[in-house]
Amino acid sequence: MCSSAVFILDLKGKPIISRNYRGDVDMNAIDKFLPSLMEKEEEGLLTPILHHSDTTFVYLKYNNIFRMKSFHYSFLPNFTHISKTLFLVVSMSKKNVNVSLILSFLYKCCEVFTEYFKELEEESIRDNFVITYELLDEMMDFGFPQTTDYKILQEYITQEGHKLEIAPRPPMAVTNAVSWRSDGVKYRKNEVFLDVIESVNLLANSKGVVLRSEIVGSIKMR
């Protein structure tokens, strides 16, 4: 799945935030989105995916803003959308994409923005455009979704929109198998109980000659 660009639009279809990840689509193609949306609404054929000429839109509507992603199917750009109630999020790309994954990513973006801004609306996006761009850069790289876990993103990006300077390398939580477990957790007793189990298999003939023998062992954690 590749997303060429992500847009956050107001209800008039004007971009509030836009991020071009791959540079392979015309960013002006977003102007086709709202007319196409209104046309489908009038026809009663509104769907999460809209097509106009050589462009496809996948979008999410949240309050009074539109958030949007765009992508291309090898020769045509696409936009994906989700509907909620205050703005629109749209996605664009030149590749054949997994629409379900795109929609899931757009919803996740709204969740992360809500955690950071508390009230997710057009004004909060405008007031926090710097941190919004930082979040978009961390959550997607070259059109591919990356970290969308709010707790991990907090270690990268502070509420003030500045990157943390405590470590030159990524936080351990990013590379841990369990993202929600904080690094450096210690207990008064670090102990584990193991059972060592061994079994002997022996095969002998009537004369007592051993034909085959083996010892099988295993270690089990309690």
TrEMBL record:
Name the InterPro entries on file. Answer: Adaptor_comp_med_subunit, AP2_Mu_C_sf, Clathrin_mu, Clathrin_mu_CS, Longin-like_dom_sf, MHD
Q: Which UniProt keywords apply?
A: Coated pit, Membrane, Protein transport, Transport
Major localization listed first in the record, in broad terms:
membrane
Q: Which PROSITE patterns match?
A: CLAT_ADAPTOR_M_1, MHD
Q: How does the entry describe its membrane topology?
A: Peripheral membrane protein
Q: Calcium: is it a keyword of this entry?
A: no
Record domain MHD: where: 189-222
A biological process term (GO) from this entry: vesicle-mediated transport
Superkingdom of the organism of origin: Eukaryota
Q: Know the name of this protein?
A: MHD domain-containing protein
Tell me which species this is from: Romanomermis culicivorax
Identify the taxonomic lineage of the organism of origin. Answer: Eukaryota, Metazoa, Ecdysozoa, Nematoda, Enoplea
